[in-house]
Structures are given as structure tokens and as C-alpha cells.
Amino acid sequence: MDNNCLISSSSFKYGWTPLLLAVRGNFENLVDLLVLYRPNANACDIDGFSALMLASIGGNINIVNALLRINSYVNLCDRDGNTSLIHASKAGYESIVEALIEAHANVDHQDQVSSTPQFFHFHFD
């Protein structure tokens, strides 16, 4: 089946790909199906959010792990300079923070106001 162009393409108004929509909706089974076709896991919407960022915000470790298995880039930044690790740290999702660090997320990255993932982890802990 040669549907990779459909699975990876972004024809939606805000840059949403099928993978971004599935992750945002927390549709774990659909994400599992889509990753079989190796979509562009690093595609971002108009705000710079990748699928991994959305999964990190949403708190679903299974989706995060599925995205990491298809080589989602862990150090992408949204338009505010936040990475997946910063988003997971802000939300307090320790298992996701650990998974991202294992995947070599930059723990020293600073967002637009010079906050690091450690700041959010310790500040809101």
C-alpha cells in the first residue's frame, strides 16, 4: 500500500497531518496504525507543535514511546522555544520526562524566557 504521501501530507488549514490529529485526539490505536506506514513524525503544525510535543502535553506514554520508535526528533522547538521535554516537565509527566531524556532530549535547552526543563520540574514539584 503506497499511502505514505497521504499519511504524511498536510492538507489541513492549520498544518495538521493525520498523525498530528491522531495524537492530539489521544487515539492510541490510530497512532499505532499510522506509525506502521512511517509518516513524517517531525511534521509540525503552524504553531510549531510536533506529534511528540502533543503527546508530551497529552501525557500518553504509549503514544510517546510509539513516536520515539519511529525516530521523532526530541529536540524540536515550537514557536515559543519549548521542546517536548519542557512540555512534559511543565505538565509533571515523570514517565514521559524519563523517556525523553533516555532518547537524548537536551536537558539544558532554554525556552524564550530562559527556563529549562529542570526549572519546571523543580518549580512545580
Summed up:
The chain has helices spanning 4-8, 18-24, 28-35, 51-58, 61-69, 84-91, 94-102, 117-123. It is mainly alpha-helical.
Order of helices and strands: HHHHHHHH
Low-pLDDT residue intervals, each spanning 5 or more residues: 1-7
**C-alpha geometry:** globular
The CATH class? Mainly Alpha
Structural class, by secondary structure, is mainly alpha
Content of β-strand: under 5%
User: How many domain regions?
Assistant: 1
CATH topology: Serine Threonine Protein Phosphatase 5, Tetratricopeptide repeat
What is the CATH-assigned architecture? Alpha Horseshoe
- Largest sheet properties: none
Radius of gyration: 14 Å
Task: Write down the overall mean pLDDT.
Answer: 83
What does this structure look like?
The chain has a single domain (4-123), classed as Alpha Horseshoe (Serine Threonine Protein Phosphatase 5, Tetratricopeptide repeat), CATH 1.25.40. By secondary structure, the protein is mostly helical. It is built from 8 helices and no strands. The longest helix is centred in the middle third of the chain and has 9 residues, at 61-69.
